[in-house]
Amino acid sequence: VHRVQTIIMDYRITPPEEILEATASLPRSKSIITRAMVMAAIASKTYTGPLAEVCDDTATLAGILSRPLQGTIDVGPAGTAMRFLCALCAATEGADCLLTGSERMLRRPIGPLVETLRSLGADIAYEGADGFPPLRIKGRRLTGGEAEIDGGTSSQFISALMMVAPLMSAPLKIRLLGDVSSRPYIAMTAEMMRRRGIDVEMDLDSVTVPDTPYRYRSPEDDDEADWSAAAFWYEIAALTAGWVTIPGLRQRSLQGDSASAELFERLGVLTEYGDEGAELSATPDLYSRFDADLSDMPDAVPALAVTAAMAGIPFRISGIGSLHDKECDRIEALIAELAKLGMLAETEEYGTVLSWDGSRRPISELPVFDTYGDHRMAMALAPVAVFVPGIVIRDAGVVAKSYPGFWDDLRRAGFTVEDAEEASAEE
Known about the structure:
It is a single chain. This protein has a 4-stranded mixed beta sheet with strand order 18-19-1-20. Strands 2-11-13-12 form a 4-stranded mixed beta sheet. The chain has helices spanning 30-42, 56-65, 79-91, 111-119, 155-164, 183-194, 227-240, 260-265, 301-310, 330-339, 375-381, 406-412, 420-426, and strands spanning 11-14, 21-23, 70-74, 96-100, 123-126, 135-138, 145-150, 172-177, 201-203, 206-209, 243-247, 269-274, 277-282, 290-293, 315-318, 346-348, 353-356, 368-369, 391-393, 416-419. A hairpin with a 4-residue loop joins strand 16 (346-348) and strand 17 (353-356). Helix content is 30%, strand content 20%. The model is unreliable at 1-6 (pLDDT under 50). By secondary structure, the chain is an alpha/beta fold. The two termini are 41 Å apart.
């Protein structure tokens, strides 16, 4: 497996000249692949599942898991790898590593996971600021028993604990305190573990995992197109009033983001499923307002917020507190970039709600959008070109983190995607 090379380039985007009829070649689900790789590693198996469309995050984790958990392990900007490896290193006897990452990664909190692992006997020390990477970890067999963690923190903390529980000396019961965010991702982990012989029990405020070994399962059984990536094609279908075919997109999915189909129906996109995937088509029936609690699927917020704003639909999106600690502060980033379009969105309720009342102010220049090193910001802002041809997306190569073929798919759909500097020189 080779890590995808992220190209630093600014792209100028113009829309198709004809009605859009496109087929999107989505990557496979990053959430499913990363979990499958960790479970395979715990079962002392080599992951052999779908990696045809390797993205930075899956390539990084695959490379690390192909070697002993020793020495300095640098995950770069891969947050999933940081959280899953923190638990895996702590629960693997003989592991001895310094777990570190990119500059942004060293500012993303990991304290709740570390403290819960410590309560189970883990030997983890902060090498920098308390609560943040880098982490010095010496692996040992953890005790199991009962532990607790704030359910409002990253669901990946909880999934990480669940996946390593079979390595512990006793069953593990995780008590989830407060409101649980991104619960479908926890349910995904539980179901994938059940498919591999681990009888996970879940209720509203706890998860119980027995200390039984993983059973081998062909990872192809979990092969699904990535619903988080599909959200950007729903956005494109909505803004172009065109048609999009997405092979491999399942209605009955392990992924909680499959709820995007219902949410985008409010924004004018219908979904029909067939044997090969999903067909998206536009409808003139739009809601006059878009109000939604996205605590279960916060990754869809950029696509939904930009779609609603460009369609002129006021919105109020709640349950988004976790987005302040993603690859960037996605909420503040969305507010800043929508302002370049004359739309003054704002936060409410201590940063847990993003809203826009529909008001606009004139803009005097063609927007040049910043991506903040965040793949989802780049993909959410690109379709703005449908309404504002010639927009520029800075550092467009960040999409390699999850969807390296995005710009190629956009070109095949009829968009013009060109180097912004070269395009300016030719004018």
